[in-house]
Amino acid sequence: MPPPGRALLLAALVAAAATASPSPLAAQLVRGTVTQAASGAPIAGVLVELLAADSAGPRVASALTDVAGAFALRAPAPGRYVLAAKRIGVRRVTSPPFLLAAGETRTIPVVLEAVEYRLPEVVVTANRACAATPGDSARVIALWDEARTALDAAEISLRDRLFTAQVSRYVRELEPGTLRVLRETTSDVRGAVASPFGSPPPESLATAGYWRVGGDGRTTYHGPDARTILSDEFLGDHCFHPVTGQGARRGLVGLAFAPRSDRGVPEVRGTLWLDGRSLELQLVEFTYDRLATGTDTVGVGGELHFARLPGGAWIVRRWYLRVPANALSTQPLSTEGSAPWVLVRPTTARLREEGGVVTPDELRPALRLAAIEGTVRDSTRKRPLRGAVVALGGSSRSATADSSGRFRLDDVTPGAYQLLVRASGYDTLGVAAVERSVGPGDGEQLRLTLDALDTRALTTRLCGGRAAAWGRGTLHVTVRDSASGATRPGVQGTLRWMSTTGRETGDSVAVTVQATSDANGHLTFCDVASGRALTLQLRDGAAGTGARLRTMIPARAVRHFDVSLAPAPG
Question: Looking at beta carbons, which pairs linking 342-345 to residues 24 or more positions away fall under 8 Å?
């Protein structure tokens, strides 16, 4: 039995519960052309549905009109049907019921009004479950009809392979809080496009939730794609209310969704954002309603950005899913003097982001490619950074700065990118010399001056957004295997100095800071006393090897060491 209110919800929001795959042997056909009332011009990209003419009205076939406004729908069997057509920003048109005989081909012309750039009126036949007021209920249903049309169109465009494209995918490891890119891999593929997330069936998400812990202890996260959002399960499990865009979402109108209060599995909440004038779906943003205990939720979630192609197809133009990648903390744990407590840092999570950008072949002839050029300078802003590699995040594109620090990237597809500069010295610290968000427009020649991080900015990057106070510095260590040169993760580091100059006495106590090398063999010690004798002890418990070094750090300086450990015996 469905949960309370679900039947009303689905009746109010959904005109079709499922799409049946037409049998290739079925001979009943409904075809026609959709035109605009005033001009008679054909309209591409209209969602046309064939519905059974009973009280439930299930959808038996669907299609998008082509550039000539034409459509053809195959009925699975003879019977009574109605034809419905929906164009975003225009009231849905439904034909009177008609009888389709065995083997019959019926032609039904459809005429739609011009887009009025206002939310069409709807008839509310049932109270909207979860809605605060009847007014909210009417607006929710009207917004949903516009959003559903775009989501349906996107699914039909994938199902019917209405476009081919180049898909640039990326996987990034991000630093929590700053979202700094720590590592990135990219790939480019041409051909038919699949759904971005590859989510399980909606009924599985409704039962088990949007993240699950496997037998190996790893957590798998899933995002709601168009198929999921259109499903009965999603509509039955969530409440909706209208919102108005603010800040970066100014000019948009939204349909926010949140899990019902009786949901007991990991859920998602978010907003479907539509253009405030055209009412075309722009994006879906979401986050997770609950995460595992101790997991930071900042920055976790995802977005799907939609676009309509000139030929009428709808696509997910770009997307990302950003989730925790659980790992042992590599941040220092410190005790100072004889303090009656020990600071224990919990297990932290780096963020893993998977995403992509779709460039349809249909847009390529009309798309004017952009170019990015400029100069890379060192942290003094005086000398060129010769040999620096300027890479375009989310793609395989890069350029190397010449002796004057100049670089150029040609034939760049317009869109949003992260520009990353790799340079000697910065690479040893595991950071980019420059990170810059860029968004070259159609045919734009973007000119930039890129300045490498200075010591203060470098400290902020290495230390999770914290700058060094006066009298403090930063020590960075890379641990390698002395035989292979490969980096060594999991090495324990203990840094020791005296709280004041001199021997250990009542007013001068030993300060001890501990850290563990990360997957790249890096250890970072922040807020280290400058001008003091420092002793670093490294120990690889698994291999039974270690090393010791002594050093001193000037105030607000960043000092780096490469340390080699002998491989495990035998």
Answer: none
- Closest residue by Cα to residue 520 from 467, 566, 562: 562
Q: What pLDDT was estimated at residue 373?
A: 97
Phi-psi region at 58: left, alpha or beta (left = phi > 0; alpha = psi -120 to 50): beta
* 497 close to 511: Cβ distance less than 8 angstroms: yes
Domain 6-116 has CATH 2.60.40.1120: yes
Separation CA 567–CA 551 (nearest Å) = 24
H or E stretch at 184: strand 181-191
Q: How far apart are CA 279 and CA 411, in angstroms?
A: 32
d(CA 510, CA 504): 7
In the chain, % helix, strand, coil (3-state, to 5) comes to: 10, 40, 45
Per-residue pLDDT, 198: 75
CA 140 to the chain's CA centroid: 26
CA 419 to chain centre: 17
Closest to 223 in 3D by CA, of 323, 155, 292:
323
Where does 259-385 have alpha helices with state H?
Answer: none
Query: Can you give the three-state secondary structure of 351-377, one letter per residue?
Result: EEEEEEEEEEHHHCCCCCCEEEEEEEE
Distance CA 494, CA 335 (A): 11
Residue 382 exposure: Cα atoms within 13 Å on the Cβ side:
1
CB distance 427 to 382 below 8 Å = no
Architecture of domain 464-565: Sandwich (2.60)
Q: How many residues does the chain have?
A: 570
Task: For the beta carbon of residue 194, count every other beta carbon within 10 angstroms.
Answer: 10
* pLDDT reported for residue 26: 47
Q: Which helix (H) or strand (E) holds 235?
A: helix 232-237
Residues 52, 77 contacting (CB under 8 angstroms): no
- Extract the runs of DSSP E, i.e. beta strands, from 413-554: 417-422, 434-438, 445-451, 472-481, 492-498, 510-516, 522-529, 534-540, 545-551
Instruction: Report angle CA 410, 411, 412 to the nearest 5 degrees.
Output: 95
pLDDT means per 10 residues, the chain with 570 residues, are 37 34 62 94 96 81 96 95 94 94 96 75 47 75 94 93 87 81 81 76 95 82 93 94 94 95 93 96 93 69 94 92 66 37 44 89 78 94 92 87 96 87 92 91 93 93 86 94 91 89 60 90 93 93 87 93 86
Residue ranges matching CATH 2.60.40.1120 in the chain: 6-116, 370-453
Structure tokens at 211: 């993240």
* CATH 1.10.287.70 is held by the domain 370-453: no
- Rounded-to-integer distance, Cα 414 and Cα 518, Å: 36
DSSP 152-175: HHHHHHHHTT---EEEEEEEEEE-
**Secondary structure element (H or E) that encloses residue 333, with its range:** strand 333-336
